[in-house]
Structure formats: structure tokens, C-alpha cells
Amino acid sequence: MDAITALFAGFETALTPINLLWALVGVTLGTLVGVLPGIGPALTVALLLPVTAKLPPVSAFIMFAGIYYGGMFGGSTTSILLNTPGESSSIITALEGNKMARKGRAAAALATAAIGSFVAGTIGTMLLTFAAPAIAEIAVQIRPEAKFSLIMLAFVTISATFGGSPLRGLISLFFGLCIGLVGTDLQSGQARFTLGRPELLDGIEFVTVVIGLFAIGETLYVASRLRKDKASVIKLEGNARMTREDWRRSWKPWLRGTALGFPFGAVPAGGAEIPTFLSYTLEKKLSKHPEEFGKGAIEGVAGPEAANNAAAAGVLVPLLTLGLPTSATAAILLAAFQQYGLQPGPLLFITSPELVWGLIASLYIGNVMLLALNLPLAPVWAKLLLIPRPFLYAGILVFSTVGVYSLNNSVFDLFLLALFGIIGYGMRRFDFPVTPAIIGVILGPTAESFFRTALQQSNGDYSTFVRQPLSAFILFIVALALIVPAVLKARRPSVAT
Fold first, then answer.
1. d(CA 440, CA 364)
2. Which is nearest to 136 in space by CA: 319, 299, 404, 398?
3. How far is the C-alpha of 433 from the C-alpha of 171, rounded, in Å?
4. Is 410:400 a contact under the CB 8 Å cutoff?
5. Quick check: helix, strand or coil at residue 295?
6. Measured in Å, how far apart are the chain's first and last C-alpha atoms?
7. CA 193/CA 143 separation, integer angstroms
8. Which domain holds residue 66?
9. Is the Cβ–Cβ distance between 114 and 240 less than 8 Å?
10. How would residue 229 be classed by pLDDT, with cut points 50, 70 and 90?
11. Which of 28, 96, 436, 469 is most exposed, with the fewest beta carbons within 10 Å of its own?
12. Number of domains in the chain
């Protein structure tokens, strides 16, 4: 009942005219960037961090949440009409949805994706409403040793999940941790990794790092591979709509996809990729029309899209209750919290209840807005795919440069932006995932703080991390996450022979 009372208070905040306007801006912008190939919610929120620094926190996060959910909605349009998944979680949607579109069923594919996203997003938000306060109450009692171990678990699992190589993920994480150490040590007052530059004494602005690695790096990577020929966009006639048979074949996959997506989004490194593939496999096994899979089965769009959006709601559980991001967008949202001097975690529900519950309430409102935007306006969003890529990415470059310069009016920040942009391009070029680096920059100082606090409370006894039961158990899981994949990979050739 306390959660319901708090949620109603959140609706009072979210339903004010100004916050409704920011929610509409967020979902519209999120759908737009979801439709445009190569631009996702993480990059968009990163670009907007400098611009929204002067906004009230509640309004800013309501807009960010709208962008997050809107990006998930809009990504299906690109996958279905262009056969270009903007993110790895949309690969399955592209596989079946584009086949449906080529058979003249683009409207049905877009409709089942939009309605499935609405159903999964709403159910996922309901689960978030009741799960987050319960987890927050438990998390208040977690000791610093266990909090440090939790961050270690997030580091290892995220590094192993993003990208094709766990080693590359760990190298990316190490790079981010090093960047996070730049500046003055708050306990000893000593300068670290500043190279004698006074501009680095306060550390490197995480906005500069994020925009450099994500926006500039992505722009350079796309520019280096831009081809003259235009992609083939399937035309969409009329609004997104479904027949009675489509409804009959879609509603169960929506529910099953939701059940798979939410828990995977809520665990460190769960993300949306695993549940979308699991949902696709499950629907193929349960379908009465297995012969249609690979040729345009509507269940292959409905289930994975629901799993994708349910995972988006699940990602907010560890972010709000523990301060742990489990996706790229969640990492940027964590940076946004820190920009406002807020630390997500169990105390956030006590210190900033208006922000937390206003944000959660806005997710319900945003889902309704997204459904209203996506079904009747699908042909309009489809036309955005015709925007020339050079114009699009040139605009991102300009917006990125102006945004970073506006933070401190510093030319030195622009040099750093260019440096991180080149590094981001190199990471994309050689298949090093960017997300572990971003999470290392943001969570590295927090992990160091918990580590030092635990040592101070134990008088410098390092064994405290294995003597505290919860910490020891989490570190055991960390060790398994590092060792088991390597052992399985080493045994694979001998098994094959």
C-alpha cells in the first residue's frame, strides 16, 4: 500500500503541465532517435546532458525516461522497414519483421511491435513500482564490503557480456577505471594522473568522456563506412494495424516476452539481448506455424519486442535501488544523476521521493503517449529514414562540440573531446565495447569509496571482504564469472575431437 500511495504522489508530480510537456518531448525525441539508424537512447541522453544541466531534476529525468522508452519503441521501425537494427536487442525484430514487410505486412509488424512494447512496458513498470521499494529497504542494510563486491560483479559481468570478447571488455573497463582516477584524491589531496595539467585537477568531465566515446566515436565510425548507395526502405501505406488473427497470435508472445525480459534487465549485465533471443526460441517451439519462422512469423516480432521493452523497465530496478547500471543507457542515466549531485541507491527513495516516484509515474504516462504516437503516425516516422546520413551525423558533431564547450567554456575540454572521439572510433573499429569503459568512469570512484570505507571500518583488514557473508558470496560469483567461461572455452576443442 505504501508503494501505491507513493505512486499516486508521483502522478501528482508527473501530471503537472510542465512535466507532461517534458514527457511528450522525451517520447517524441526518443521515437525519432530510435527510428534513425545508428542513433540510440544512450547517445541522445549523452548529447542532452549539457543542455539539461539547468533543468529541474524531476523534469530532466522525466524527459530522459521518455527518450529511453521512446528509443525502444522507435527501434522497431528501423528494423522492420530498413532491416537495420539500431541495437543488438533489435536483431530478431529485423529478422522476422523485415520479412513480414517484404511480404506486404509492414503495418501488421509495426503494430504488433508497438502494442507489444506498450503491454510489456506497462507490466514492467508495474513490477518496478512494487519491486524497487522492497529492494531499496533491503539495500539500506548492505555493508560497504558487499556494495564494493556488487560493483565488482557488475564490472565483470558487463565486461563479459558486451562485445564478442570478454578480454576486450575487461580492457575497456580498465581504460574507464583509469579515466575515473584522474584528478585529486579526496582523502589524501594528492593529484593523480594529471600530467601536470591544472585543468585535470578536478578530474575529467564525464560528459566529455561520454559524448566523445559515444557520439564522436560513432560519427567517425559511420563516416568511415558511409556508402554512396542508398539503403532500401520499404514503403508503408496507411497506419499500423492488425487483423483479428494477428491479435490471436500475438497476445501470448507479448506476455511470455514480458516474463522473460524484466528479470534479465534487472540483473547485472542482463540487458535485452539474451531475453530477445530466448523469446524468439521459445515462440518458435510453441508456435503452431513453425514453418513461418525465418520467413516472417508475427510471433517472432511480438515476443522479442515485448522482451526488449520489459528489459528496459527491469534495468531501472538496480539503477534506482543499488546505483548499478546494467546497460549503456542506464550508465548515462547514472551520470545524469551525478550531474545533479544525486547518488541512485536505497537512500534516494528517502531523500528524493518526489524525483523517484515522479519518474516511475511518468513511465506509465509515457507508454500511453508512445502508443498514441506510434500507431497513427507510423508513416511519418518511416519517412525519417530518408534523411541523408551525412546531414544527420554532421549535426551530431556540431551539437556535441557546442554542448561540451558550454559546460566550462574551455578549449581544453574540446581537445579532450577530440581525443576521446578518436579513442571511441578506435574502439568501434577494433571491436572494443564502449559500455564497460563508460561504466568504469562512472562507477570507478564509487567502488574506490566503498573499498576504502570497508578497510577503515575493519582497521585495514583485507580479509573483511571474504569474512562478511554477502560480500564473500558475491565475490565467489565474480570468480565463477571469470573462470567458468575460460574453462569451457579451453575444453571445447577437446570435446569436439
1. 31
2. 319
3. 9
4. no
5. coil
6. 60
7. 30
8. 2-496
9. yes
10. very low
11. 469
12. 1
User: In the predicted model, is pLDDT for residue 13 greater than 90?
Assistant: yes
Q: Are 163 and 273 in contact (CB under 8 A)?
A: no
pLDDT band at 60 (very low <50, low <70, confident <90, very high): very high
pTM: 0.82
User: Is residue 400 pLDDT above 50, yes or no?
Assistant: yes
Please, how many CA atoms are within 13 Å of residue 200, restricted to the half-sphere of its CB?
15
**How many CB atoms within 10 Å of residue 7?**
19
User: 83-92, 366-375, 402-411, 483-492: lowest mean pLDDT where?
Assistant: 83-92
Give the range with max mean pLDDT: 39-53, 71-85, 407-421: 407-421
Give the CA distances from residue 433 to residues 167, 171, 349, 437, in Å, rounded to whole numbers and listed in that order.
10, 9, 32, 8
Examine the pLDDT at 289 and tell me if it is beyond 60.
Answer: yes
pLDDT computed for residue 418 by the predictor:
92
CB within 8 Å of 43: residues ≥ 6 apart? 33, 214, 215, 218, 396
Cross-strand bridge partners of residue 184: 191
Surface-to-core class of residue 397, CB atoms within 10 Å of its CB (0-12 exposed, 13-18 middle, 19+ buried) = middle
Q: What is the enclosing helix (H) or strand (E) of 13?
A: helix 2-14
Q: Letter for the amino acid at 488? A: L
Sign of CA dihedral 15, 341, 346, 471: positive
Check: CB of residue 75 under 8 Å from CB of residue 87: yes
Give yes or no for a contact between 437 and 172, defined as CB atoms under 8 angstroms apart: yes
